[in-house]
Write a structure and sequence with these properties.
The complex is a heterodimer. Chain A has no helices and eleven strands. Chain A is an all-beta fold. In chain A, strand 5 and strand 6 form a beta hairpin. In chain B, strands 2, 4, 5, 9, 10 and 11 form a six-stranded mixed β-sheet that branches. Classes of the chains: A mainly beta, B mainly beta. The interface between A and B is medium-sized, with 26 and 24 residues.
């Protein structure tokens, strides 16, 4: 089955630790995205990548980093510089950046202890 | 900066009633508008995508309209069922990025 997988489903982080969230897609999509969702708010864009080896900052990139070494994979690292990382993180992909339907993964819930 | 608003934030209706969900946006220079469904603790599922040149889009019991000039979209769900209970989000695309509303949480009472 084609789709987007995210792991882990739940993640706990201690203060000062970096953690990496995984996102993999087998839809052969060029573009991939990371969003953050907080209660009562819409999704906010962290980073996006239109093509392999290229990525752009979104609206709230501070404290996050990404890489896009393979078309299928777009991992997100939440660094210790992110002051309030507790949130629900969603990865998405689309065939072409900006004009097509975005398909979402099941999400990772990150909690800082 | 695009601002997307969805009112009301929550809605409760008896089974069988038609649902009307509203979305408004501030910048009418959009490429498209999408409606998504989100179940608790889950990712988003795309319901309908309306291109900027279209006025409406239909899929089964769902119908979405788009009025770019007034910055509004409406999602209609006919003959609601308990399985329609979820949060519905709209998102508009301009400058090659999606801007999301906070969503309307719908409860359909059996």
């Amino acid at each position: 089955d084609g789709g987007i997988t995210q792991s882990p489903k739940y993640l706990f982080r201690k203060e000062g630790q970096n953690v990496t969230l995984s996102c993999e897609q087998n839809l052969n999509h060029d573009a991939m995205y990371w969003y953050r969702q907080d209660p009562g708010q819409g999704l906010r864009l962290i980073y996006y990548s239109q093509i392999v080896n290229d990525f752009q900052k979104g609206d709230i990139a501070e404290g996050y980093s990404v890489s896009r070494e393979k078309k299928e994979s777009f991992p997100l690292t939440v660094t210790s510089a992110q002051k309030n990382p507790t949130a629900f993180y969603l990865c998405a992909s689309t065939r072409r950046h900006g004009t097509d339907t975005q398909y979402f993964g099941p999400g990772t819930r990150l909690t800082v202890l | 900066k695009q601002e997307v608003t969805q009112i009301p934030a929550a809605l409760s209706v008896p089974e069988g009633e038609n649902l009307v969900l509203n979305c408004s946006f501030t910048d009418s220079a959009i490429y498209n508008l999408q409606w998504f469904r989100q179940d608790p603790g889950k990712g988003l599922t795309s319901l309908l995508l309306i291109q900027s040149s279209q006025r409406e889009q239909t899929s089964g019991r769902l119908n979405a309209s788009l009025d770019k000039s007034s910055g509004r979209s409406t999602l209609y769900i006919a003959a609601s069922q308990p399985g329609d209970s979820a949060t519905y989000l709209c998102a508009v695309s301009n400058d090659y990025k999606l801007s999301f509303g906070a969503g309307t949480t719908v409860t359909v009472r059996a």
